[in-house]
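Hey,

Quick one before I head out. I ran the complex with adenosine-3',5'-cyclic-monophosphate overnight. Inputs first:
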Amino acid sequence: PMDKTFALIKPDAYPRREAIIEDIKKCGFTILKQSEPKPTKEQFEEFYAEHKERHFFNDLVAFMQSGPIVAMVLQKENAVPDWRKTIGPTNSLKAKEEAPESLRAKYGTDGQANACHGSANDDDAKREIEFCRVRYLDPLHLRHP
Ligand code: CMP
């Protein structure tokens, strides 16, 4: 299994990013890369393409553009499932009930403003790490394709 995954700190949790980053390290992850990209609406639509038929899609894209974000590549044995477990259930209200130590319980608010993103599986982790590197983390790449 992969030892890397892709993580975002979403706009709702950006003010508490330093506490979240402390928690990430305490949970045994190494932060291999960290940046504060500013994806366009179109880039977020592509990043979240799997959700484009869902009723919350437009709200999600607007929410992700509502403030700064932190993008990270995290490394750890079993990074993908371990990071999903660390962040907890998608809905922060459910996380507060079922996984009070999780990051979404501690730093999130509800089903949309849930503090963090984590890749769902190894294929998504590869795609998201690559998408971020090529599409908006690395502007040099765009200038010198
Ligand atoms: P995440 O699982 O990281 O990626 C998809 C995001 O869509 C999810 O986090 C939430 O931020 C948002 N989301 C998922 N389900 C809902 C929902 N039912 N209503 C509003 N937003 C949602």
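Helices lie at 17-26, 41-47, 57-64, 79-87, 92-98, 103-107, 122-137, 139-143.

Talk tomorrow,
K.
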